[in-house]
Design brief:
Elements: H1 2-30, H2 47-54, H3 58-89, H4 95-107, H5 110-120, H6 130-154, H7 158-167, H8 172-183, H9 185-200, H10 204-209, H11 217-225, H12 229-259
Length: 263
């Protein structure tokens, strides 16, 4: 028994070290004066962060990335929640088809997806627009949203809930918004965080569909990776910190809402 505990603890610590070392190294490199000749950095400075914030495109790229991730989350919520609810209540026979449909984006390379959308949607103002980019990101990130919501719906006795609500005179939209929605909030939050983190760091779709006309933070990161790795590290740290703080804030708000006593 003791050997089992020791082995589990060892592998857990190994996993934590494996995950944290690259992140810590990036943080240290972003404040290092120079770190290529010795084991430890040759001094520390915040100069690279200063140059990052002074770059004319940094705020624009950060805003565009936040907007892209936020709109993609909203589009996923609008499309996935009603579709998953209908599939689990009204049309249970299509659940398998829904599962297969939402897995398809994993098998389509983003380069192919972007080129296909550019080829099909050639009419202005859709062609190569931020709207087309949001649509592509929604398709790509759909599996991240569908699976947590589907799991939350499967954990509920939907038939009993629907029957009880309909006896009280509620229609389908009222049931979905006021009864089902609050009870699958954990799935909604999990899916939203997965989609947000995936799209906030998305590079391929953005560079192929909109290019420099809608520059995102990953595009700026790649640009500085070719010029100065220390500024690129600073951008990575800023992006990771923002995503982490937003995720923690969403989780905290959700937990506080769940802990509010219901009357």
């Amino acid at each position: 028994m003791k050997d089992g505990v020791v082995s589990r603890t060892f592998f857990l610590l190994l996993f934590i070290v494996y995950m944290l070392v690259p992140i810590l190294a990036t943080y240290i490199f972003s404040i290092a004066v120079r770190w290529d000749r010795t084991i430890l950095p040759e001094g520390y400075t915040f100069e690279w962060y200063s140059q990052t914030f002074q770059h004319p495109y940094f705020i624009i790229a950060l805003r565009n990335s936040l907007m892209l991730a936020t709109y993609t989350v909203i589009m996923n919520l609008i499309l996935i929640i009603p579709a998953a609810y209908i599939a689990h209540t009204r049309l249970p026979s299509v659940k398998l088809q829904m599962d297969l449909l939402t897995i398809l984006p994993f098998g389509i390379p983003r380069v192919i997806l972007a080129l296909a959308l550019i080829t099909v949607f050639t009419m202005p103002p859709i062609t190569r627009s931020p709207f087309l980019l949001v649509s592509a990101c929604t398709i790509f990130s759909m599996p991240y949203m569908y699976r947590p919501i589907s799991n939350s719906l499967e954990a509920m006795d939907l038939k009993t809930i629907n029957d009880a609500a309909q006896l009280q005179g509620a229609n389908s939209w009222q049931i979905l918004i006021y009864i089902i929605g609050p009870n699958i909030i954990s799935g909604i939050v999990s899916g939203s965080l997965l989609v947000f983190s995936a799209i906030f760091a998305e590079y391929t779709l953005a560079v192929l569909i909109t290019g420099a006309r809608f520059k995102t933070l990953p595009m700026l990161l790649v640009e500085f990776t070719r010029r100065d790795g220390r500024i690129a590290s600073a951008i990575s740290v800023i992006a990771f910190t923002i995503a982490m703080l937003l995720s923690l804030a969403i989780i905290a708000v959700t937990r506080n809402r769940e802990q509010v006593p219901k009357r």
